Amino acid sequence: MFEEENAAWGLVHALVLDGQGGARWLRYGELHALQLAPGHSLWLHWDRGHPLAQAWLRDNSGLSEFVCDLLLEENTRPRLLPLPDAELLLFLRGVNLNPGAQPEDMVSVRIFAQAQRVVSLRLRPLRATDELIGQLMAGKGPRTASELILYIAQHLTERVQDLVGGLSDTLDEEEERIDADDRYQPEHNGLLQLRRRAAGLRRFLAPQRDIYGQLARAKLPWFAADDGDYWNELNNSLTRYLEELELSRERVALLLEAEDRSLNERMNRTMYRFGVITGIFLPMTFLTGLLGTNVGGIPGASNPYGFFVTCALLLLLAAAEWWMFRRLRWL
């Protein structure tokens, strides 16, 4: 199978776009003698961590050492770098939907693009490229190299929309529960995780939004005339998602403040009750301590009803204190 052959070389996908929205698969061995027909484009998607993929990039891709070093960097942020000869270097981030991963730990995709060739690299699987291949196999995918990078960016942005919408829905549920039940307390660690997720997403999406804005203004000769409109729409979409993330962070802060305020109110009520109880029993404790001294002259010491009279007096004192606290509105 050609998929196993390609995987052995670190080649995740190799396709030739037919210019009509479809594509055909390529084997690794076909790359060296490949001649693209007019209107066709080549897309090579590599596993950046594979040693043979790194070797191909440096030895057989025809890219400069400078470009190869950038594509193989360990840690990068979203960036756009125009290159000579109308070439483009583009680093984007996508939501991490791999099992066991945190969505805010975003997956990087590095792209080198020119008129008829797109070389992309990833370290971890990216669902956006799988969906794009499904469109190509159905004949409804990108037709040119410029459309290919636009489609990749669109799929990455759609995943962001789903995640931001999920954050907003979770906060809506928490706020509705608080409004419905004053005694409900949201999970503190869960709220902190939501705030960290929003901050982590915003860290990468803010520069990515600026990149979309730059691409909307780019005038590369192999870009279609209306590509700028689509990039501008992606820029507007990310701007809206960033505003939602900022709003989510503020909503989490308000929920945390409400939680702290509720906790303080409960603590104050508890301490107040302890204070009232202490105020009631303090005079009674004083009297019982005074009557408990082992010295002569204690009133009622020889009276057989002295104990009962003392208990009655203590109950009367407690009732009087309770009445006084009620009049003073302390209870």
TrEMBL record:
Membrane topology note: Multi-pass membrane protein
Location of the protein in the cell: Cell membrane
Main subcellular location of this protein, as a coarse class: membrane
InterPro entries: CorA_cytoplasmic_dom (IPR045861), CorA_TM1_TM2 (IPR045863), MgTranspt_CorA/ZnTranspt_ZntB (IPR002523)
Cited Gene3D superfamilies: CorA soluble domain-like, Magnesium transport protein CorA, transmembrane region
Keyword Magnesium applies: no
Membrane-spanning intervals of the chain: 271-293, 305-325
Pfam families recorded: CorA (PF01544)
Swiss-Prot/TrEMBL keywords: Cell inner membrane, Cell membrane, Ion transport, Membrane, Transmembrane, Transmembrane helix, Transport, Zinc
Keyword Transit peptide: no
Top-level taxon in the UniProt lineage: Bacteria
Family: Belongs to the CorA metal ion transporter (MIT) (TC 1.A.35) family.
Identification of the protein by name: Zinc transporter ZntB
